[in-house]
Specification:
18 helices, alpha/beta, about 30% helix, 3 domains, Thiol Ester Dehydrase, Chain A, 7-stranded mixed beta sheet, 6-stranded antiparallel beta sheet, Aldehyde Dehydrogenase, Chain A, domain 2
Length: about 675
Amino acid sequence: MEVKNYILGDWVSGEGTEVTFHHAIHGEEIGQCSSKGLDYQQILKYGRDKGSTALRKMTFQQRGEMLKSLALYLHKRKDQFYQLSTATGATKIDSWIDIEGGIGNLFANASLRKQFPDLPYHVDGQAAPLSKNGTFIGHHIMVPRRGVAVHINAFNFPIWGMLEKIAVNFMAGVAAVVKPSEYTSFLTAAMVEEIIKSKILPEGSLQLIPGLGRGILDHIDHRDVVTFTGSAATGKLLKSHPNILEHSIPFNMEADSLNACVLGEDAIPGTAEFDLFVKEVHKEITVKTGQKCTAIRRILVPEKSIDDVQKALIERLQKTIIGNPDNKEVRMGALATKIQVERVKENVALLMQSQEKVYGDLNELELVDASLDKGCFISPILFRNEDPFLKDVVHHVEAFGPVSTLIPYKNLDEAVAIVEMGKGSLVTSMVTNDDQLAKSFVSEAAHMNGRILILNERCAKESTGHGSPMPLLTHGGPGRAGGGEEMGGVRGIKHYLQRTAVQGHPETITRITEQFQVGGNQPKATPHVFRKHFEELQVGETVFTHKHTVSEADIVNFANVSGDNFYAHMDATSLDGTIFEQRVAHGYFILSKAAGLFVDPAKGPVLLNYGIEECRFVKPVYPGATIGVKFTVKEKIDQKKKDEEDIAKGIVKFLVDVYDETDETVAIATILTMVKKIDQSY
């Protein structure tokens, strides 16, 4: 099997053979790949000119729908990747994390479209007033970078590692060139082949370099973004590449991480948390054969409990069936390559120089339906380090396999100090049912961790566990962990956008952002906005309502209906020492009355009101005050029909500006409505 490069719209062979693939379980040769001789300058240009150009013309809503379609397409075809995944040494659960976890990233990022405007670029934050009379304001927009995202990925998650990254840059409107680890790129290529077959992505959006990729960074420039997942040593070399330094190219790195799991002092033997701790640590040693950037390398246990933890953990390790994942009884597979086996053994030897090995044997291992000679198998190794401050190699050397070290601690401060000795981690977990203890630990340890999991019986059934980064949360970490951020919801997408301040008249900024800015033109809506379909509404057009004079009867009646008898509304004798001069109208009465003023009640294109944003009551309204409403089209967001039976519609945000007889705003809010389209075809 030759794994070809997908570049310039075609599958292309490289010169000769750079890497030969071997089955991690059986050892036989299964294929080869090469990227030698490729024209990286043209590959990057093709991605910029073809892929990125097409993507950035799409709105965020369209990109999100594209990702959703791709996720659905791949989910229907997921089973075909499992058997090929076995060749990387993966068990069924290992493959599930890689394959379905990767596809899940597409779904999660697709859902983020709801947090972006219906534009090719993002309008970020709130407008900034820059002048006394309001004729000059500033705003920020975030536009797609005009280059490509070059992703250099690790061997351990051939599918997830790619999908979690490209989901983010596609949402931003940027094409990708993916260079997976050459050793497991055959699985990445299988996924890319299916993606290309789908024809869901614009041509040029995704290119694949399964070989060594030497020279790919020689042609990047200021428009591009580079990400790297792998060892800190390799990451530092790449980060110092002359092109990256010369052009100030964003470089996101996820590197080594000596992650820790801390057993809380309250979690003594016999508690649910003690059992959870042992189970979680065992899982992180054996799942993916410990080949996870988030795996637990340091097991921190109160001195009084370390013997109990050691005993319980060894009992679990002894029961772990290792071998061929095709056997349903097997719970731990192989490392990805013989190269990895040797690297793990070298690091185990370093760790063994100053630590006691309490479980495991590198030379002997009982296997099911597999051979130690042919496959890439290794025994789980458990160390114990009684003096982590003196014997500190455990805080410097990561054996990227099923290897971890038990470490005792005296108190919380010492536990935090030991965690910090890892010099920055992707994730640290604490297993405790003591929320105050959890708070104290988080406040002290967060600065050196990208993520902290607090695990206890209350969340265990639904917890995704120590080793599972989530697409909507940050994946990355400070210091040794690389200092980068992969994913992170909206924040992750913004890594591929350029933030630019735009200054001008409110009307100009309204047109640029397609969001109404205070001070912009507010032409009178004719007819009423509730008589107009989605396509007919224009940002800025406004309904100016008739007025209403608030009475004490209004206040009393609203209190009777709502049950809100707060003293400020109902007891004029209790206002001493407050900001109120007399009984004040309920804020929610003002908003409700505003709705009564701006609503056109007859049936029309408006289907429903489904939410309120940014509601503020900014000035007290007393009996005798006269209020009116300026009801303005603030923003329009298109929606795609869910199915043929669905109503074609869009979301319209209206600014509700309630003002009094002095023309001062007393309340302001944004309401969200669903508005029917004229065109029901899409």
